[in-house]
Every structure is written in C-alpha cells, then in structure tokens.
Design brief:
Number of strands: 0
Low-confidence stretches: none
Order of helices and strands: HHHHHHHHHH
Shape: globular
Number of domains: 1
Radius of gyration: 23 Å
Mean pLDDT: 84
Structural class: mainly alpha
CATH architecture: Orthogonal Bundle
CATH superfamily: MetI-like
Length: 264
C-alpha cells in the first residue's frame, strides 16, 4: 500500500510546526528565567526542572520515587475509569432502548453530571479518608458521564432498518442490546471512552491533591509544602506525558475501530 504524498507532506508540516512551537515556548521560558525578573524559586529554568525530574526517577521523595508515585496514580485511575466504563456503557445502551429507564434516570443523571468531580472531594475525604476509595470515587464521577452519554447516543442513532430487521426475527431486549445496539454503537462508545479517559485523569490529580497519601498529586502537594517548585513542575510534566500517552493510545484505537467499520 502506497502512502499519499500529500498526507506525508501534511504530517511533516505538522511535525515541523509543532517542534517550532515547542522551541518557542522553551526559549520564552528560558529567557524569563534568565532575566532575573522572576525569582528562580518561583520559576526555575527548564534545565533545572529536567534535572529535578531525572533525580526523582531514582531518588525517593515523600517515600517513593516518581515512577512509584505514577504507578500508585495509575492503579487508582485504572479502577475508577474501568468502573465508569463497566457501569456507564451498559446503562447508556439500556437508556437508549428502554424509554421508561431513560425517563427515570435522565433527571438524576443530568443533575449530577454538572457537578465538577473536584466538588466530590470533601465527601470522598469524609467517607474514605486517604484510602483508595476516595480517588476512585472522584475518577468515576469524572469518567462516568461521557461513557453514559456516548453509549446512549450511539444506541439512539442506530439505523432504524437494523432494529426493524431484528424485531421481525423476534429478537428480545437483551439480544437487541448486545447483538444490535452494542456493535452499532462501538464508534460512539470508543469516542466517549477517549473523552472519559481525559476527564478521569484530570479528576485523579485533583483527588490526590487532598485525599491520598501517595501518587503524583500527593507528591506535588508535598513539593509545594517544601517550597520546591521543581518538584511541583516535575509532577506536572509527568502528568502531561502520561495524559498524552493515554490519549494517543485511545486515539489509535478509535482510528482502528473506524477503519474496521469503513467510517474513514
């Protein structure tokens, strides 16, 4: 299979422009840090932050190295995001098929989904303390709405002739959801998972700022208490890198799903 030359040129231009933007950002940051207008304790130079990041990879801070803090964060994230997907996707599909369930759940769901995940932090701290339940609850509250909404939309917009054909064959509700609505809704569900993954990761960091005793967010709070800006920025860098990797993986999965269904 030969690649379209225009696509190759477009990708090269995107890479070049992205590199220029990154270099411009680093140059501006370095210039401000070197100017002396901002104290180094508040805005360290990029190379100082990189040195601290490298140091944290092998040397513990508040009991753990940076990879260990990341592993703790990812464990909580996997539990909260997985629970949101396991509960949210079936609920969205069933709401798309059962009108009575849609009417019953929608008012409560619409009221709760507009509450920011960070608003659940006080409840999580009261109910779970610094245990794993609090962060999982907050991640769930961030990732759950996109899972429900996209599964619901996917089920509602299934082509009518597929449903009519299944009904003519006497397909029951359970098989209708699992064998008709679910396969037809996969592209919408995957798109929702990508949105949910980003919101869940952001929610995790907010949770760890308050209701955790390990993790990247906890490390950043302790770095702030120690007035170590480089530690805080190292945590931000780790959060950004992991977030980009999660999004890239889900974006690749979304593209493969769309190609397999002839949507691209």
């Amino acid at each position: 299979m030969r690649l379209d030359p225009r696509l190759t040129i477009a990708r090269s231009e995107t890479l070049m422009l992205g590199s220029l933007g990154l270099l411009a950002f680093l140059g501006l940051w370095s210039g401000i840090a070197a100017s002396g207008y901002v104290p180094r304790s508040f805005l360290p130079a990029p190379w100082e932050m990189v040195a601290r990041f490298t140091h944290l990879l092998t040397n513990p801070f508040v009991g753990f190295t940076l990879p260990q803090h990341l592993a703790s964060s990812l464990g909580r994230y996997a539990m909260g995001f997985g629970l949101a997907a396991v509960v949210g996707i079936p609920l969205g599909l069933m709401m798309g098929w059962f009108r009575w369930l849609d009417d019953m759940v929608t008012p409560v769901f619409d009221a709760l989904r507009f509450i920011a995940p960070i608003a659940w932090v006080p409840f999580a701290a009261l109910w779970f303390g610094t245990g794993i339940g609090g962060p999982v609850m907050i991640i769930f509250s961030g990732a759950f709405p996109p899972c429900v909404i996209n599964a619901y939309r996917g089920a509602r917009y299934v082509e009518r002739h597929l449903i009519e054909a299944a009904e003519m064959l006497g397909t029951g509700s359970f098989r209708m959801i699992t064998e008709v609505l679910l396969p037809a809704s996969i592209p919408s569900i995957v798109a929702g998972l990508r949105v949910a993954a980003g919101l869940g990761w952001q929610s995790l960091v907010g949770a760890e700022l308050i209701v955790a005793s390990s993790g990247v967010g906890y490390m950043m709070v302790q770095g702030q208490s120690a007035v170590s800006t480089t530690t805080v920025m190292s945590g931000m860098m780790a959060i950004g890198i992991v977030g980009v990797l999660i999004d890239a993986a889900l974006r690749s999965f979304e593209r493969s799903v769309r190609r397999s269904r002839g949507l691209d």
